[in-house]
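2024-03-11 09:14:02 INFO worker-7 job=invfold-0412 stage=load source=structure_tokens
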């Protein structure tokens, strides 16, 4: 008997070289699919990138990207690329929390099983009354086993749900929004109760290490671009960088190819769009764009993040990271310590300067302000928060704005997020904005890439 030849796997074309596109391409290449990845910019990483600052010579991240211990797919992704050792993940959650009036506390996980690991820190939390703390504990215990996928929880705001539990405005601002704003890039009045509950169920209550903070020790492009490119090419992936996609080409209701700027055309059997929703709609042929499946993504909204980078002539902050309530500051990262691989604070005292990054989520009030105004405002805020900054000089200041940093998980937004399979049988979608069940995070981006790779493989 003559053995039948194994049919060649279909050619896959991935449009978009962000985390979702990289994850999809990597997974498919590992399964033996031939993959061509097309990216408009000259580097991979999408919204996760860094750039050299001409004035200081340092790599500056476009935003202070963090992940949590519960981001299991993203952590596995970093290990798959062989770069996890270039990131830091806290062995146990530890974040100093300050108020602008001088109150200081420590949000740290105790050596207790979840969900009680944060109880000692919560009881000592000085930014709420004893009654507020009791209600927070009661609500967390109730939320632990609540089915967040109930339709009514998708249709109301997390703020409304919290008020129904009896929480005060102060508790919502200093506890619930303290954690919601940096993770969902919005406040509790603007996010669905379903997504607000998801943050606490997955990030706080499910495991003692789920809230541990992680971040890159180097510029993001040094890991997201260089290492991802090396990994994909080692698997035989074909990378087409600096190639802007103009449109999808279609025949007989299917995608037949993509046209790039300059007239080049690339064809395959299966196509994966890993670009933002507004770009996807521009790429689609008009008849496909008109399908209700694609039209509904127009309802997704986005929120901004602003990062203020300050270089001081001397150390002004001891902690690696610090969070704030009751003031203009939200999170401040000591980039000097991070980029020196978390050198002890006493070693930093001998250095001649310090680089801080102020991360501002849900930054509508800041995104249209001039750089000079923002720098003046936040230099003053740092001086109020860290007394040593009052005698320090700012050598360099830089503001980075991302107007559409993340999609807004508003009530009803869950119904707008599409599945990875589309009505076009050879077109699939990836991206953190697709229906992953997670908010607009690096974890969601990687999950979407894996989801679409699984859907492609299942269709074989």
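2024-03-11 09:14:09 INFO worker-7 stage=emit residues=460
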């Amino acid at each position: 008997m003559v053995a039948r030849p194994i049919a060649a796997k279909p050619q896959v074309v991935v449009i978009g070289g962000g985390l979702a596109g990289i994850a999809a391409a990597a997974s498919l290449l590992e399964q033996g699919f031939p993959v061509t990845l097309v990216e408009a910019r000259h580097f991979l990483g999408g919204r996760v990138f860094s750039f050299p600052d001409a004035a200081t010579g340092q790599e500056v991240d476009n935003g202070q990207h963090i992940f949590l211990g519960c981001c299991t797919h993203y952590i596995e992704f970093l290990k798959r690329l062989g770069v996890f050792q270039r990131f830091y993940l806290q062995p146990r959650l530890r974040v100093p929390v300050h108020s602008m009036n001088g109150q200081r506390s420590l949000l740290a996980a105790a050596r207790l099983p979840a969900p009680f690991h944060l109880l000692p820190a919560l009881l000592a939390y000085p930014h709420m009354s004893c009654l507020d703390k009791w209600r927070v504990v009661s609500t967390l215990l109730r939320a632990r086993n609540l089915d967040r996928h109930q339709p009514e929880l998708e249709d109301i705001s997390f703020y409304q749900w919290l008020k129904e539990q009896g929480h005060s405005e102060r508790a919502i601002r200093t506890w619930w929004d303290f954690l919601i704003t940096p993770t969902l890039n919005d406040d509790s009045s603007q996010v669905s109760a379903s997504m607000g509950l998801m943050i606490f169920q997955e990030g706080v209550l499910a495991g003692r290490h789920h809230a541990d903070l992680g971040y890159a020790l180097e510029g993001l492009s040094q890991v997201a671009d260089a290492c991802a490119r090396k990994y994909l090419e080692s698997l035989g992936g074909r990378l087409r960088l600096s190639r802007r996609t103009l449109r999808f080409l279609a025949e007989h209701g299917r995608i037949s190819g993509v046209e790039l700027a300059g007239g080049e055309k690339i064809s395959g059997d299966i196509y994966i769009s890993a670009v933002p929703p507004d770009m996807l709609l521009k790429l689609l042929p008009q008849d496909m764009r008109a399908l209700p499946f694609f039209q509904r993504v127009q309802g997704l909204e986005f929120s901004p993040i602003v990062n203020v980078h300050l270089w001081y002539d001397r150390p002004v902050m001891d902690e690696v990271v610090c969070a704030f309530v009751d003031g203009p500051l939200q999170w401040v990262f000591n980039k000097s310590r991070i980029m020196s691989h978390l050198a002890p604070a006493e070693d930093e005292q001998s250095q001649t300067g310090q680089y801080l990054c102020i991360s501002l989520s849900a930054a509508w009030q800041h995104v249209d302000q001039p750089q000079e105004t923002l720098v003046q405002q936040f230099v003053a805020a740092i001086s109020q928060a860290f007394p040593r900054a009052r005698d320090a000089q700012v050598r360099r200041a830089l503001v980075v704005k991302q107007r559409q940093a993340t999609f807004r998980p508003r009530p009803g937004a869950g119904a707008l997020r599409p599945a990875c399979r589309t009505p076009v049988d050879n077109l699939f979608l990836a991206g953190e904005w697709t229906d992953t069940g997670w908010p607009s995070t690096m974890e969601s981006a990687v999950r979407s890439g894996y989801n679409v790779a699984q859907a492609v493989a299942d269709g074989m």
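2024-03-11 09:14:09 INFO worker-7 stage=report msg="Residues 12-48+225-300+417-458 form a domain with the FAD/NAD(P)-binding domain fold (CATH 3.50.50.60)."
2024-03-11 09:14:10 INFO worker-7 job finished
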